[in-house]
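User: Before I run my own analysis I want an independent prediction to cross-check against. Here's the chain; please return only the structure tokens and, at the end, one sentence I can use as a sanity check.
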Amino acid sequence: MSLVHKDLAAGVATITLDSPPNRNALSVRLLADLADRLAWALAEPEARVVVLTATGKVFCSGADIKEQRAGDGRPDAPVTASLPEILRTLWESPKPVICRLNGTARAGGLGLVAACDFAIAPLTASFAFTEVRLGVVPAMISVPVLRRVGARAAADYFLTGEVFDAARAAEIGLLSRAVPEEELDATVARYAEMLTKGGPEALAITKRLVREVPQLSFGEGLRRMTELSAERFTSEEGQEGIAAFMEKRSPTWVPPVSPVE
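Assistant: Structure tokens:
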């Protein structure tokens, strides 16, 4: 039985962690299932947006501690086997990824949160980077987290392991939104609907430029973005979007609205 489920509806691929007995910990089995489901979502032509969520009260408690105990002479920890590639897949996904936190997240689970394009959580959720309290470090997850969270806030929570709430997580950039629990699904659905209206190629390219343009000099940035702008206006997707706007219709990439039964 898989520990990660998949579903596809109205252009949205939903991937659900489902291992509540260990609080959706990043076990070897769950990571393998998650990698498989992510590969499916990215390869599925009808999937325009990916939503990552979980069952139970905890989104993800981090590494499966029971599996991390040494004793068999292995030189590495099980969580290092596939988590780096999963973080890379989420970060580099050409399709927008929304993390719908059903609840609390800790340690490695926050790596998944930071690697997604959007992260929306209920105000009741809490967060903590607990690694140092176990004598380990938030090593792999620091790569996406430090691209979301400033150095001062990262030092505050990486070094102390202090628990902080969803409002604070949104304030420091770890979350996109913190909303009342009863508004969680509607907020995620609104984001997904807005994202399906964007051209698939345009979304993938825009994801990259958000990360790459700040690294360019002002002049080089203008030069490269001028070329990109001209390319996109004349592209097949760009021409379809312009035609749809002029003809007051939806572009061909927007999923059709399902009839109400």
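Sanity check: The longest helix spans residues 218-234.
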